[in-house]
Design goal:
This protein is of the alpha+beta class. The longest helix is centred in the first third of the chain and has 11 residues. It is 16% helix and 29% strand. Strands 2, 3, 4, 5, 6 and 7 form a six-stranded mixed beta sheet that branches. A four-stranded antiparallel beta sheet has the order 8-9-1-10.
Length: 200
């Protein structure tokens, strides 16, 4: 590629369930264990199983992408069957037991633990990381993005999962308005990142 050749368009998103009347999940202490592993690595151990409970009105439909937690995306069985091979290129799908009223309600969902950490943030142009590494404004180096992967994490904010544009588009096509895709960064002229990427 020559110096003046146009750069391919890149975009990075944070994904979460929409604010519609759908049921989402709240994790138990297994999420704390995950965060310790994400922050510190060994000797901290990554969970091999997760627990959560359903939130929302019993009459609402259960979301197929029901996690609002930035480091613990959750997928329904249908999504795993459709996307499992692609998701496996960047992480591991682990079992999740979801309860309701203290009883087991679902065991078909999977937590997607993103193992791949990539040093691709332009730290000079990004905001200073907060106590957990969260950056209000994140700028990526396009040439360093792992664009073949669906998702990745970064050293500065290890408890956040970033999604490449093609993966966000694929999930949006499957879930429609049950999924919210918040733009974190794009090299497309005129693009505007979401003002509160990591809020709920």
């Amino acid at each position: 590629m020559t110096e003046n050749a146009p750069q391919p368009e890149r975009a990075v998103y944070r994904l979460l369930p929409s604010r519609r009347d759908i049921r989402t999940v709240r994790f138990d202490d297994s999420l704390t264990q995950l965060k310790r592993w994400e922050f510190h690595g060994p000797p901290q151990r990554r969970p091999d199983h997760f627990g959560a409970e359903w939130l929302g009105e019993p009459g609402w439909p259960k979301a197929e992408f029901p996690s609002t937690y930035p480091d613990a995306p959750v997928f329904s069985r249908r999504l795993v069957e459709l996307l499992g091979d692609e998701l496996a290129t960047a992480g591991t799908l682990l079992p999740l037991t979801v309860t309701e009223g203290g009883a087991v309600a679902d065991e078909d969902y999977r937590v997607y633990v993103v193992d791949t950490v990539v040093d691709c943030v332009d730290t000079a142009r990004s905001s200073r990381p907060g106590p957990t590494g969260e950056m209000k404004r994140t700028v990526f180096r396009p040439e360093a993005l792992p664009t073949r992967l669906p998702a990745f994490r970064v050293p500065q904010f290890p408890v956040g999962v970033y999604w490449n544009g093609w993966a966000a588009d694929r999930l949006s096509g499957l879930l429609g308005d049950h999924l919210e895709a918040r733009l974190v960064w794009s090299n497309a002229p005129g693009s505007r990142p979401h003002p509160f990427v990591w809020g709920v």
